Amino acid sequence: MSVLGIDLRASGKKPSAVAILDSGSHLTQLGSCYEDSELTDLIDEVRPDLIAIGAPLNLPSGFCCLDQSCDCHFSVPGRKGRLLERELAKMGISCFYTNKGSIIRELIYRGIRLSQDLKEKGYNVIEVYPHATKMLLFGDKLPPKNSAASVAYMIGHLTPLVSGMDDHSDDLDQNSCDAIINAYTGQLHSRSDTDVLGDPEEGMLVLPKLPT
Ligand SMILES: [Zn+2]
């Protein structure tokens, strides 16, 4: 069961980190892709059993777009985002709400486009959220993202879970660690060690199994 994790960037002009884990959670490949065509070419070459993308992959119910000038609106009154985002907030996990004021609109559009393309080609695609996975696996005392301590913290916490990290030590940064976390979340999903939030219409977020 191979899983490909992507830390997707909003623009194809910036590198989206990609990590591939084999069935034994060994890191077989770590790299980056720019345009969607480069990502899909890599995926067609590797043919992973599961693809875990760290970006919103659906719009809220009632939305056809995120354009302020369009009349589409939340079909559930009083909503600020998707159901899964509301559920995350209740768990104390911060996230961006998917709505027309979103500052990550381009990332959302790209995530939707890419995941639809991949699903049409027959791939299994799941939405993951690296910050949520980290909080559930490593606790809520995470160093601030983009701090120097954060990369060291992630490497320290991922090394017991994922083998082969040493072979890629030169390429380990915040983005590549997030791609590995995304792939690892997919690996947990393949072993039924996950829970899901949200609903099928607005998108399901895959998380490590929640404490009961
Ligand atoms: Zn619309």
Q: What's this model, at a glance?
A:
The chain has helices spanning 36-46, 83-90, 105-120, 130-138, 148-158, 174-190; strands at 3-7, 16-21, 27-33, 50-53, 125-127, 194-199, 203-208. By secondary structure, it is an alpha/beta fold.
What's the structural blueprint in terms of helices and strands?
Elements: E1 3-7, E2 16-21, E3 27-33, H1 36-46, E4 50-53, H2 83-90, H3 105-120, E5 125-127, H4 130-138, H5 148-158, H6 174-190, E6 194-199, E7 203-208
Parallel strand pairs: 1-4, 4-5
Antiparallel strand pairs: 1-2, 2-3, 6-7
Helix pairs in contact: 4-6, 5-6
The structure holds zinc ion (ZN).
The site of zinc ion has 6 residues, from loops.
Give an overview of the whole structure.
The structure is a single chain. 34% of the residues lie in helices and 17% in strands. With 212 residues, it is α/β, with parallel strands linked by helices. The protein has one domain (3-208): Nucleotidyltransferase, domain 5 (2-Layer Sandwich), CATH 3.30.420. The strands form two sheets. Strands 3-2-1-4-5 form a five-stranded mixed beta sheet. Helix 4 (130-138) packs across helix 6 and helix 5 (148-158) packs parallel to helix 6 (174-190). The chain is globular and about 50 Å long. The protein starts with a strand and ends with a strand. Bound molecules: zinc ion (ZN). Residues 63-65, 67, 70, 72 line the site of zinc ion (ZN).
